[in-house]
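Cast an eye over my tokenised protein here and flag anything odd:

===
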Amino acid sequence: MIKNYLLLVALLISTVSFGQVLTEDFDYGMTGGDLTTVSGGAWVQHSGSSGPVAYVAAPSGLTMAGYPSSGIGGHATFSGTSQDINRAFPAISSGTVYASALVNLSAVGSGNYFMHFNSGGFRARVGAKDDGGGNILYGIGSSSSTLTYGTTPYSLNTTYLLVFSYEIATGITNLHVLSAVTPTEPATPEATNTGSTGTAISAIAFRQSSNIPAVAIDGVRIATNWNEIMNNSSVASVSIVTPADNSTFTPGTSSVDVTFTTQNIDLMTAGNQVNITVGANPTDADVTSPYAIPTTDGTSYVVTVELLENNMVIDTKMVSFSVESETQVATITDLRAGTVGNYYELTGQAFISYIVTEGTRNQKYIQDGGAGILIDDTAGTLSAPLNIGDGIVGLKGQLSQFGGVLQFVPTENIPGAATTGNTLTPLFVTAAELATNGESYESRLIRLLNVEFADTGMFADNTNYTVTTAGGTDMTVCRVVFGDEDLIGTAIPSAPADIIGIGSEFNGTYQIFPRYASDINTTLGTEEFGTTSFNMYPNPTNGSTVTISSASNNAKSVKVYSIIGKQVINTTITNTLDVSGLQSGIYVVQITENGKSATKKLVIK
């Protein structure tokens, strides 16, 4: 405990470097588990969802004599190919950033990196590989996954102290592998590398991937000089663990926990305490971590954490965060006009046209009368049972984008379907229209009219096929992407076909995603489809009328649609249809007689 802070500073100022940023001793108690959970959010996932980094419960800390973070609490371990995590600290934007960790490898493969600095890009990537004789070579990459490895063989099942650094101005990274604590930085590193410069460092990260070692890790320390890696500062201080500065929280977040730690001070002593201020006004005194701050949507917060010793403020830290608000939109057209990254509530009803049943992203395509969008639900937020043809209302989420495709990431569950059994009619689209105006059809159920495949053989998963208007040159892409459906392994048609599927895009190239084998139909390129038989002639026509006849020749309800789905004629006839008001192009004619319907394509020259 420090009784006279000013005197102590005067005594130590010539010997202590105030460059310590973060100490992580993995001291999270007697129960093991997912590190992101047991750490109370200090460690957060930034990639992958399964195979978490594990916390091995205390007492199991790795040890090295003289290292300040030796033998404290438990340790972390990982060796898989999924979850990547990081722990944030105040950003360092100049000078050199140092990190150290006790590591013990029980197995090592052909080589990959497993630990690095994180910010806007990965820096100082530390990895290991087998030297060919059952020993370990450690390596480092500044900003590339290609590492420079040292030449010294190190043993498995042995604890070493890795110290690595990134010089922000030059991009130089150095790696030291130590068997004992070294008071000063060795002149020659085990490995060095040079890469991207100017990156501010704000987190330390653990990475899982193929060929990484089986690693136990402990005693992670971040500092701006070698001395603070190897020594504990004796200055009392407070650190904010969560939230990270400038964090944003989803709408509906009712409170945010501010977690903090203190160093080199006894808070059980009278006059030693932590105070919290939110905004300009003092909020609470003598608080403990975590401290919950009530929040409302659309509000920003500035939180000041003060450490008091002997009733004097000796250290202050600040953090800013905000809670987003939702904008209500009535239609998917309005939603698609929103800003990527913002939050919205879709108040109108949308209908599910397809549910992706493979993979882990829980994707669903929805549409209304004007537009469609892809729901990307990796977290499984929409847990209520939903089916194709269901209508849903009140969907809330965040607008995002991948490969040019707009996506909606749900932030709240919905009770279930508002309506069920809805029938969705595909919009009729030509290859030329899809290629040039594909944004209008993105994530909507469409029917690509009268196209021919350039390829032969069988349909395969995750494969693009070029299709061209039958007898023409207009070209677009048919991509087979739903690998668990019955389309896979069926024959690519050699005759002209209509293709039903979901309109999509990949970086500006518009595509159609057929779902089932029945979506590829070679009998409908120029013929009618439905439940009864009609004749329509002349077709193509350059006249003002066409004749529609049937066996009974009773009154017929006729609706004519443009290829973008706009109704242009709605009338009742016996035989003669007036088409004088139609411009040249392809139209879809829906004919109903005596309760039976059929659909034909009409070409106006």
